[in-house]
């Protein structure tokens, strides 16, 4: 079976602990190489993860002729520049979210795709590939919970390490960019359209200058999505999807563990026999599913599951939310 040979640009934790193990589980991917800015670091991580080839620079990995695609887990402000360099080297690109720092950044990447039309590029929004999200979306679209009226999401963790890239404003740190992007994405995904206006509120960390707490409202022409994300709160995540005839609750919507089943709650008041049901999904790794779906697009010459236009629209919504938070008022999208 033909597989896509992946090289990893960088030794970030998400790559080491989530994506590289997932690539090994996947059906259509092979982890072939890793690069760091230092050969010593590349050798250490490559040895620990049993990756056969190690490079002391990103450029050296991109020059390797036996690498088909790269996974980019670099800091946010480096995503677009290295994605374009990878495209120039003939490598397909799976890049961590958010794809850039702003829509201008993503426009540069979209422009580059016109120069390299055979290269696949996708933002790595792993949650959307999980069966629990595919099932939730199907139930919403089928009208099982009636008309979708509101979506509520919450995502938090605690990290006040000044050396952590998530706490560095110039590198694209902050709660909205790091995890609020999921809340914005899932709202757009479920409503199947773009918000008409938004309202944002943020609390900035006085040391780091990043938003440590961000709440937003997204108006989808009269129906609403609300969310809160935070980087200095007790870890928690939950999504509630409410319609006129029922609701869906995702208990572990973002970091669904790859070693135990996932569950969602579906409630319908008109179901007399079982108004509240717990739906269980078998053990799976959402990162491996993401990798395989991207690899199939590469192997088949088909469109990627999440197009760059979706990444642009998500970033645009976040930009407008930040503008609203600065102005203290609703802003039209």
UniProtKB/TrEMBL annotation:
Residues 4-115 form the Gfo/Idh/MocA-like oxidoreductase N-terminal domain. One of its GO terms (molecular function) is oxidoreductase activity. Residues 133-249 form the GFO/IDH/MocA-like oxidoreductase domain. Pfam families: GFO_IDH_MocA, GFO_IDH_MocA_C3. Gene3D superfamilies: Dihydrodipicolinate Reductase, domain 2, NAD(P)-binding Rossmann-like Domain. Coiled coil: none annotated. The keyword Oxidoreductase applies. Keywords: Oxidoreductase. Transmembrane segments: none annotated. InterPro entries: Gfo/Idh/MocA-like_OxRdtase_N (IPR000683), Gfo/Idh/MocA_domain (IPR050984), GFO_IDH_MocA-like_dom (IPR055170), NAD(P)-bd_dom_sf (IPR036291). Belongs to the Gfo/Idh/MocA family. This is Oxidoreductase domain protein. It comes from Pseudodesulfovibrio aespoeensis (strain ATCC 700646 / DSM 10631 / Aspo-2).
């Amino acid at each position: 079976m033909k597989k896509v040979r992946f090289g990893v640009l960088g030794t970030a934790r998400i790559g080491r602990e989530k994506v590289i193990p997932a690539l090994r589980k996947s059906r259509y991917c092979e982890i072939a190489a890793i690069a760091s800015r230092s050969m010593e670091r590349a050798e250490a991580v490559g040895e620990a993860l049993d990756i056969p080839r190690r490079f002391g620079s990103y450029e050296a990995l991109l020059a390797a002729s036996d690498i088909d695609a790269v996974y980019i887990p670099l800091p946010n402000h480096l995503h677009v520049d290295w994605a374009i360099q990878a495209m120039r080297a003939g490598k397909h690109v799976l890049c961590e979210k958010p794809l850039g720092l702003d829509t201008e950044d993503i426009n540069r990447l979209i422009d580059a795709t016109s120069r390299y039309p055979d290269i696949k590029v996708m933002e790595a929004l792993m949650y959307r590939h999980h069966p629990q999200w595919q099932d939730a979306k199907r139930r919403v679209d089928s009208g099982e919970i009636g008309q979708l009226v509101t979506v509520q999401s919450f995502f938090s963790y605690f990290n006040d390490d000044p050396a952590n890239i998530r706490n560095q404003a110039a590198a694209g740190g902050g709660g909205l960019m790091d995890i609020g992007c999921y809340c914005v994405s899932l709202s757009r995904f479920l409503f199947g359209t773009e918000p008409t206006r938004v309202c944002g509120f943020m609390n900035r960390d006085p040391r780091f200058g990043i938003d440590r707490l961000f709440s937003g409202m997204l108006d989808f022409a009269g129906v609403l999505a609300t969310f809160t994300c935070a980087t200095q709160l007790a870890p928690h995540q939950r999504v509630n999807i409410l319609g006129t005839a029922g609701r869906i609750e995702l208990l572990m919507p973002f970091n669904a563990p790859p070693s135990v089943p996932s569950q969602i709650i579906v409630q319908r008041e008109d179901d007399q026999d079982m108004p509240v049901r717990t739906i269980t999904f078998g053990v799976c790794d959402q990162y491996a599913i993401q990798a395989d779906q991207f690899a199939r697009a590469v192997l088949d010459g088909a469109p990627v599951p999440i197009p760059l236009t979706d990444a642009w629209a998500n970033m645009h919504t976040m930009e407008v939310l930040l503008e609203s938070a600065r102005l203290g008022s609703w802003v039209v999208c």
